[in-house]
């Protein structure tokens, strides 16, 4: 019910939902095509991920490679990927957050 006792306009609600679905699909496509980078060790290890969180690249500076200390290198790789994923999550929130907030603005729906 709409405040004041009226019934929601189902056609308008359907159109609004379809528009939001299209906007969401476009935002998801944009996220899949956008890349962000994370780094560790002062840039010795850099990871590139898409806005959707898919690892696309990893660059390791030769200075980070010590055959006697592969654990540190592994830690740097994990940290760089983690940093890149944090950036991807922020990008997702920036792109998808406003769309999710729009759900609460649809009259007649209990959000």
From TrEMBL:
Pfam families referenced in this protein's UniProt entry, alphabetically? YbaB_DNA_bd
Organism lineage reads as: Bacteria, Bacillati, Actinomycetota, Actinomycetes, Kitasatosporales
Q: Where in the cell is it found?
A: Cytoplasm, Nucleoid
Q: Which organism is it from?
A: Actinacidiphila yanglinensis
Please indicate which superkingdom the organism of origin belongs to: Bacteria
Q: What is this protein called?
A: Nucleoid-associated protein SAMN05216223_13255
Gene Ontology terms, cellular component aspect? bacterial nucleoid; cytosol
Q: How does it assemble?
A: Homodimer.
Which molecular-function annotations from GO does this UniProt entry contain? Answer: DNA binding
**According to its UniProt record, which protein family does this protein belong to?**
Belongs to the YbaB/EbfC family.
């Amino acid at each position: 019910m709409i405040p004041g006792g009226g019934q929601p306009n189902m056609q308008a609600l359907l159109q609004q939902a379809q528009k939001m679905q299209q906007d969401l699909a476009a935002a998801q496509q944009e996220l899949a095509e956008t890349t962000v980078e994370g780094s560790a060790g002062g840039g010795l290890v850099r990871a590139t991920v898409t806005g959707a969180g898919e690892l696309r690249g990893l660059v390791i500076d030769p200075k980070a490679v010590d055959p006697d200390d592969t654990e540190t290198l592994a830690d740097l790789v994990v940290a760089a990927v983690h940093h890149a994923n944090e950036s991807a999550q922020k990008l997702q929130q920036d792109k998808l957050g406003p769309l999710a907030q729009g759900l609460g603005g649809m009259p007649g729906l209990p959000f």
